[in-house]
Design brief:
Blueprint (H helix, E strand, L loop, with lengths): L14 H12 L8 H13 L4 E5 L2 H11 L7 E5 L8 H5 L3 E5 L10 H13 L6 E5 L8 H11 L2 E5 L7 E2 L2 E2 L6 E5 L12 E5 L2 H11 L22 H12 L1 H19 L5 E3 L6 E2 L5 E5 L1 H4 L3 H10 L5 E2 L15 E2 L3 H8 E4 L7 H14 L4
Parallel strand pairs: 2-3, 2-4, 3-14, 4-5, 5-8
Antiparallel strand pairs: 1-9, 6-7, 6-11, 8-9, 10-12, 12-15, 13-15
Bound molecules: pyridoxal-5'-phosphate.
Pyridoxal-5'-phosphate binds next to helix 3.
Length: 378
């Protein structure tokens, strides 16, 4: 019999989501305005302890709006974490900015404050003032925001916080999504909560959010006819998708608990194996454990990451490599990079394990059997 596939991070939705969609239909609020859009924006802003939110069709669209709100244009310099998904940095390229990539550090796998400082010092010497720093909380682990914000402040550069993977994570009890001048979230199908596709921009600055709203709805001037002084986009989230988001946000805490349990399951099983490193939470850090990831020392474990992936694949279990850093991407081969190659090593030796909040005991049994075989657990 063909086995059901265990996915890396599938959507996890319930009845209330379906009821809300029906409500959107039955009230005919199916376009980009409506009560669910308003409520989702209010709820998301509140959850992230921000004044306002603008919900859009993707996290990438939210970053694009952040780039536009900050007035970033051709030739401007933007510093971006190298180890991330390309959605973090594509919008700066849409606006023809010059991207400089910053390495990771080992404690959180996120932007290294020392490399950030090196890049900013070099920019200063060359009389370049970067327009933004894009920092990411990968796999749910908060970046070293205290240090990064203090450096950004010192050099007077705005921070765009990419919290696409970190809704529900906290640093010293402050939620991810509350740290940047502008912060973004993703509700893509693989995220901890989803609207099928979607994203949000959150901020404490009402002018930033009102500009984002304006740009996200084709930059229509306030006139009795269609007049445009700026180029805008059709980015706003529909009321149908926002209705899913409203229900998903209610179960977010449960999803965090379940994903943290997944991490514990893997940790208990593998903690004594020599050559496996987990991403521990430093003091004051709380990760939503969006994905559980391991670093594999091939020499000590006697098996490569690619071989582990194909072993799982035989069992219809999806695993993935870590993000390939942006400075290693062919498309960015001419961009500057600051760091010592921590992110190169993470990419070469890292693996993401199935981490969905709807993985059940049967799935865990299949995963455990496979891991027991791969690592010869007695
Ligand atoms: C770190 C990060 N940034 C940005 C994005 C872009 O979000 P979206 O897929 O909603 O456009 C994603 C994921 O999809 C992501 O993981």
């Amino acid at each position: 019999m063909k086995k059901n596939r265990i996915f890396l991070s599938p959507p996890h939705i319930g009845q209330e989501e379906a009821n809300n969609v029906l409500k959107a239909f039955s009230t005919n609020w199916i376009s980009t305005t409506g009560p669910f859009v308003d409520k989702f924006e209010k709820d998301i802003a509140k959850f992230c302890e921000r004044k306002e939110a603008c919900v859009v069709q993707s996290g990438t669209a939210a970053i694009h709006l952040a780039i536009r709100v900050l007035g970033i244009s051709e030739g401007d310099t933007v510093l971006c974490q190298s180890l991330t998904f390309i959605g973090s940095c594509n919008p700066a390229i849409y606006e023809k900015a010059n991207l400089i990539f910053i390495d990771s550090e080992n404690d959180t796998w996120n932007m290294c404050p020392n490399s950030l400082r090196d890049a900013l010092e070099d920019c200063k010497k060359r009389k370049i003032t970067p327009k933004a720093i894009i920092v990411v909380h990968l796999y749910g682990m908060p970046a070293k925001m205290d240090e990064i914000l203090s450096i950004a402040n010192e050099y007077k550069v705005a921070v765009i916080e990419d919290a696409a993977e970190a809704l529900g994570s906290k640093l010293n009890n402050k939620p991810c999504g509350s740290f940047g001048r502008l912060s973004i979230l993703s509700f893509n199908g693989n995220k901890i909560i989803t609207t099928s596709g979607g994203g949000a921009l959150v901020s404490d600055n009402p002018t930033d959010i009102s500009e984002a709203n304006f740009l996200s709805t084709q930059a229509k001037e306030n006139k009795p006819f269609y007049e445009h002084k700026k180029i805008g986009y059709n980015y706003k989230l529909s009321n149908i998708l926002a209705s899913i988001g409203v229900a998903q946000l209610k179960v977010l805490n449960d999803r965090v608990i379940k994903r943290r349990k997944n991490y514990k399951f893997y940790y208990e099983l593998l903690k004594d194996i020599k050559g496996i490193t987990f991403l521990n939470e430093p003091k004051g850090y709380f990760s939503n454990r969006w994905l559980t990831c391991l670093i594999i020392d091939e020499k000590k474990c006697g098996i490569s990451v690619n071989k582990i992936i194909s072993e799982f694949e035989e069992e219809q279990i999806e695993t993935r490599r870590l993000w390939k850093p942006m400075h290693m991407q062919p498309i960015f081969k001419n961009n500057q990079f600051y760091g010592s190659g921590v992110s190169n090593l993470l990419f070469e030796n890292g693996i993401c394990l199935p981490s969905g909040s709807n993985i059940d005991e049967k799935d865990k049994k299949r995963i455990k059997i496979k891991l027991t075989k791969i690592f010869s657990i007695k």
